């Protein structure tokens, strides 16, 4: 178990630049997250229960959309409403309004619940 943790830490450290954003799924933020992952203080860590949010809103364990909501809040890469418009346009090709609304709810909830350190 310890060897697996050390290997995971080494893999994470090897691939994360000095000023990166790491989104952790299914854990709550506390002071030990960066230490447990072996990350420097310059790396932003965003924690959100993306699977739980997806199960509550979309009714399936598909955490992609909540993770994007968390990333939008943590990194500010795109305006939330602009993303939701693009999401609706993309989802409307295959799904109805009910699924679009569920995905919007998942993005909004992740945006609100994400913790960043």
> What value does the average pLDDT take?
82
SSE ordering: HEHEHHHHE
Task: Tell me the CATH architecture.
Answer: 3-Layer(aba) Sandwich
How many distinct helices?
6
**CATH first level:** Alpha Beta
User: Mind telling me the CATH superfamily name?
Assistant: Pyruvate-ferredoxin oxidoreductase, PFOR, domain III
Distance between the termini: 27 Å
User: Main beta sheet: strand number and arrangement?
Assistant: 3 strands, mixed
**Number of domains in the coordinates?**
1
Overall geometric form? elongated
Amount of beta strand: 5-15%
Structural class: mainly alpha
What strand order characterises the main sheet?
A: 1-2-3
Q: How is the CATH topology named?
A: Pyruvate-ferredoxin Oxidoreductase, domain 3
Report what the structure shows.
The protein has 117 residues and is mainly α. The protein has one domain (2-116): Pyruvate-ferredoxin Oxidoreductase, domain 3 (3-Layer(aba) Sandwich). Helices cover 58% and strands 10% of the residues. The protein has helices at residues 2-15, 33-37, 50-57, 64-75, 80-91, 97-113; strands spanning 21-25, 44-48, 115-116. It has a three-stranded mixed sheet with strand order 1-2-3, with helices on one face. Helix 2 links the parallel strand 1 and strand 2 (44-48). Helix 5 (80-91) packs antiparallel against helix 6 (97-113). The mean pLDDT is 82.
List keywords for this structure.
single chain; 117 residues; Pyruvate-ferredoxin Oxidoreductase, domain 3; 3-stranded mixed sheet; 58% helix
Task: Tell me briefly what this model is.
The chain is mainly alpha-helical and 117 residues long. It contains 6 helices and 3 strands, in the order αβαβααααβ.
């Amino acid at each position: 178990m310890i060897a697996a943790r050390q290997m995971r830490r080494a893999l994470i450290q090897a691939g994360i630049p000095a000023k990166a954003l790491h989104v952790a799924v299914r854990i709550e933020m506390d002071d030990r997250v960066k230490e447990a992952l072996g990350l420097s203080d310059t790396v932003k860590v965003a924690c959100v229960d993306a699977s739980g949010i997806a199960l509550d809103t979309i009714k399936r364990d598909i955490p992609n959309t909540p993770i994007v909501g968390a990333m939008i809040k943590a990194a500010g890469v795109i305006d939330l409403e602009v993303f939701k418009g693009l999401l609706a346009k993309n989802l409307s090709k295959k799904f109805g309004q009910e699924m679009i609304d569920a995905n919007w709810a998942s993005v909004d909830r992740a945006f609100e619940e994400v913790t960043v350190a």
